[in-house]
Structures are given as structure tokens and as C-alpha cells.
Amino acid sequence: MAPTHGDTPQEKFARKCTHLRKLRVIIKLIMANLFWLADIDEKLGDNVMKNIQMLTRKKVKKSALTGQEKAILCKPKEERTEEEKALLSRSIGGLKCFKKYPPEVKAQLAACTYYVFYNAGRVIVKQDHPPSAMYFILSGEAAVSVRHYDKVLKEWITIESGTLYPGTMFGEVALLHGVVRLATISTTTPCELLMIKKEDFDRVLKATVLKSWEAISKTMNNLSYFKNWDNLTKRECAIIARTKSYATAETVLGDDIGLPKWVYFITKGSCHIIEHLMLKVYEWRGLKTYSLILYDEDFDEDEDDRTVSQIFDKYNIGGKETLADKKHVGKKKSDELMLSLEKGESKHQKGSKDFTLEHHFIKVCDLGVGACFNIGEPSRRRRVVAKTPTTVLLVPKYWVRRNNKDNIWNRVQQFLTKHIPTSEEIFKNFLEAKKFKKYSKSLIRDLLSERRVANENSIHNVPYSIRLKQGVDADYLKF
């Protein structure tokens, strides 16, 4: 609106307010995008000192995308050229969150995906609100919370149900089924996201995501844990559940890896449960003696824990079998023999000279197809490692506990707690194995030291023709 000399004071004031609002919007946009605008490559100019500073300045890679790619992703999709779409197809097609999609889907996503940035503490999607888009996290972390009414306490309770990391997709459930948001997702750190609007999701991704959801539903129907659930509960669970695959020897859960607030159901492959024993080793009456370090003992584990992961990852599960091969959960405790990863042992001298610290990784048992874990069984100083290429179904713990029909999850937890040996039992078996190994060595040594060379040959074993030819007297023939 161009100013005129005949404007009234009210019109002048309204025009001034409009300009101020536009200025505030521009400032907010600049502040919100400073995080990624700094990544845009600056061109060399005529100022020599500025060029030197720009070339010597340490560059920190903040994102998987360049500033140019982000600028294209911020443009309306109708204004993107074919060259820009081809550039986006090459760049975002290699991102972790898009790797699972076929090439033709990646190409379509490049043409309709938008870049979004949120500072920490921002709500991305809110529970019970209608959906308008889905998201992929490029960088940063976001917290998932669910609010529900507790009939016992007669109040609304908010439950933190997990954290989303780079490479995670969310928001597709509400779009897929036409329902409101099932959870609130808020940023805990500055987050970069790729956004796909509802109309583009329906056109490009809906069929692919629906196929994945149907696969999860089929998996749930094959697991006996969910047989008493009604169809509505299964459908809602399939919406929030997801699947994940692991390579052989990859850590599934434990050592700050995995999702501690989710229950794991093995649908393909098998896993080991590995116990980490921390032992004090010292001399007592001339004998090497072991003592188990308990969790509540006054001992600084934090400093030593930094090296435990390195030790385990170095040797992983390639150690020597010293007791038995695979044993499965569900057998008697007398059959729960363990496998010691001797190569995983590492000695560390502590501050005191009275003892040394040893790390031992013991295979407690195997988990096969149909097994579940992280339901509430003891898990401290334990990790689950894929024995073969493994696929798991993940269901949030809060959902499992909320749908505890026939007390099934408490019974599963009690079963696992009963059949998986405790740390004390594992330590006892470890000592028995050490004693047996020492006894075996001493027994073999004693047998070898007492062995005498037996010679049962006699003159009668020599052919008679040879004896006649040689004229050897039998009395002097010695063997």
C-alpha cells in the first residue's frame, strides 16, 4: 500500500503496524535459519584479508545436506527446476532415512520434500491433533511423550516413551490411517528435518508405508503373545510398532545401544545374551582367587566402563568355547551351561596394588525366533548380540504394560527371570569351570609323568625262518 497525503492517522498507524509485523517475521526467519545458513559456501571476493579468514576458518559439518540443497528444499516444489530435482535426487537418495525406498520413489520424494529446522524445545507434532505432514530426522534428537488418563489416580499422566534419532521417520501413522496424532514429539536439541505434506504422502509414499504396516500386522498374528488381543488393539499396536534388522555380531541392546523403553520380539534369526562379569583377582594363601564385584559395591565403574565397550567390540563373540555350545532359554538351570569368551578377558590395574580387575564376557543363553526380551527381566551388565542376521519387532513398553491382558507380560517377565541365571549363578559356574580346567590339566600332567614305554615283543614275534638264517640264540634276542 503506497502512502498518500490524504491518509488518516488510523490508516498511517495500521500501515506502520503492518511494516513492523513483516520486519518481525523476517527477523524470526533469519534467527531460525542461522543454524544452516552458515553452511552456505561463501565465494572469494576482492577483500584479501576476508578471503584468508574464510579459507583458514575451520569448517564444522552440521548436516548431511549442503546449504545449496537446503535452499532448494525450502523453495515451493512448483518452482524447482529439473536440474535442481536431479541434484536433490542424488543427495537425499543416499540419506539413511531414504535408503530403504526404491529409486523411483526416491526420485518422487526429491521433487516434493521440504527442509524444516526447529530449535530445542519446539513441538513438532502434538497428540490428538489432526495430521498434515510426516517427517524424517536429519540431525538432532526428539522426545516422544504420550498423555493418557489414569483411571486409578483420576488424573492425566504424561509418559516419556522414547527418543528419536537421526534417520528416524515419524508422523506417517496418522496420515496412513486418517487418525489424530497418537503422541507428542518435541525437539530436545536443534533438529533438521525433511517434511512431506499429506497430499504428497498419499501420492508417493502411502502404498510403500502401507505394505510395511501390513507386514508388521502379519508378524504380530504369528506371535502367541498377542493372540488374546482384540483386532482393534492389534491394529493400534501395529501402528506404533516397527521392525529393525541387525547384522551378525551387532549389538542389539545394551551398553547404551538400542531402545531401552521398547520391548524386542525376535521374528528372524537368533541372539546371544552376554553377561559382563567384573572380577577382583588377588593372591590368597598362594592361590589365585576371584571375587565378584557387585552392583552396590563401593567401586567406581564409570572410569572403567569407558574401556569395556572397546574390549567387547574388539573380540565380540569370537572367543573360545570353554564350557558348552548353544543353550536355549526354557531348559532346566542344570543345563544352563555357559560359553566364556576368553579372548574378551582384559586385565586392568586399579589404584590399589592389592588386586587387579578382570573383565569376562559370558554367554548366558541363546534367544531364537519367537523370544522376547527387555520386558523387565534383570539386564544390568548384560547385552544382547545378534548371533545371525536378525530381525526384531519393536513395541513401546508403555503400550505393552497398558495392554496386559491375562497378566501375560508379568508371566513372561517371571519366566525370563527364572530361567536366565543371575550374575551370582554365572560367577559360581565360572569358578567351577576354572576348577575343572585346573583339575583336567593336573590329571593329564600326572598321567603323562607316570607313563612307561611298554614293550611286549618277544622272540616268538620274529619269524622262524629269520631266526634260523641269522642263527640267533633266543636267549640273547632282546627287544
TrEMBL record:
Protein name per Swiss-Prot or TrEMBL: Cyclic nucleotide-binding domain-containing protein
UniProt cross-references to Pfam families, sorted A to Z: cNMP_binding (PF00027)
Residue ranges constituting the Cyclic nucleotide-binding domain according to the UniProt record: 97-205
Stored SUPFAM superfamilies: cAMP-binding domain-like
Transmembrane segment boundaries: none
